Amino acid sequence: MNVVALQGVSQSIHNHDILHDINLEVREGEFLTLLGPSGCGKTTLLQLISGCAEPVKGHIFIDNKDVVGLPPHKRHVHTVFQSYALFPHMTVYDNIAFGLRCQKKTSLSEMDTRIKAILKMVRLEKYVARKPHQLSGGQQQRVAIARAIVNEPRVLLLDEPLSSLDYRLRKNMQLELKRLQRQLGITFIFVTHDQEEALSMSDRIVVMADGKIEQIGTPREVYENPKSLTVARFIGEVNIFDAVVVEMSHHKKLIVNLLDQIRATACTHAHAPGEKVHVLIRPEDVRVWGQSEVTDSSHMFAGTVEEAIYKGTTVDVIVRLTANHHVITASEFFNEDDDRLEYKMGEPVWVSWASGWEVVLPYETE
């Protein structure tokens, strides 16, 4: 069942197009992330769902009811802002109680019961009498979330709520949010430009660029099978090669000429002989070999090491290939006992990857 649906939604400000023909269905109880670079229209989309702005075209449905023109307080949607927007003069308890008191529909005893239950859920029972300035960033974030969910919304909108937190606290809050969402069963629509955040938290990801939806899928789908160069480049690192189709073989194998090598690649779409395509391979699927390790280089590319970047658990090896001077990055797990990862700049090496790990996309002019 869909709790939110957008049909043909467009938005413009001062004759500048912000969103273009957005069609999106949000399932009940899912954690959906809007992912994209700054300025792609993510926050504008949240504003349209919440009722803080109205589309110039299209329809927005919440529980199968067209809510275009309906004020925010009648949409059963609440928003957690990047700035938290807590009342500085109020205690934690009063901040959370604010919305319930405004509604004047909840008895004092019921309100107190709901607030105490939410405080326990977000682990803030000991901080009820504190004011926002007496809390850490993570605690303020939990107050903002508690204030939103105590009203029992159908949908919770979160606009980059973790962006101001430091790395460790942000990682902790990612786990907290996902735990809370599962416990409550509320639909979360989460906005971020952080790819790792989206991959680790989401049931599905909506990748946006230039006011349009580029791809919708599970984290694994959008990472392993990007539908465009825009998606591939934005989510993680990727090596991109230009190739020419030689033939389409059986069993969904595409034979291509890549850097003067004839290679078989996995492919889900038909391509004609002579057609230009992009062949994508993720750095973690690439392997670098010292010359002494290789006895058969028929399916490898020669090159020289330009840089080896230690990242703790991995080492990124940047190699300039002899063929076409193309630069490729390999990411290998670091093992302090593995001398093979101690590469020197200018060292001649061989590069390979397993056939079938590639993604083939139609050629795009840049």
Write the layout of secondary structure elements.
Layout: E1 2-13, E2 16-27, E3 31-35, H1 42-50, E4 57-62, E5 65-66, E6 77-80, H2 92-103, H3 108-121, H4 137-149, E7 155-159, H5 167-184, E8 187-192, H6 195-201, E9 204-209, E10 212-217, H7 219-224, H8 229-234, E11 239-248, E12 253-258, E13 261-266, E14 276-281, E15 286-290, E16 301-310, E17 314-321, E18 327-333, E19 348-353, E20 359-362
Parallel strand pairs: 3-8, 3-9, 6-7, 7-8
Antiparallel strand pairs: 1-2, 1-4, 4-5, 9-10, 11-12, 11-14, 12-13, 14-20, 15-19, 16-17, 16-19, 17-18
Helix pairs in contact: 2-3, 2-4
Which term fits the overall shape? elongated
Q: Mean pLDDT, nearest integer? A: 90
CATH topology of the largest domain: Rossmann fold
What is the CA-CA span between the terminal residues? 40 Å
Number of domains: 2
State the name of the first-level CATH class of the largest domain. Alpha Beta
User: Strands across the major sheet, in which order?
Assistant: 6-7-8-3-9-10
* Biggest sheet details: 6 strands, mixed
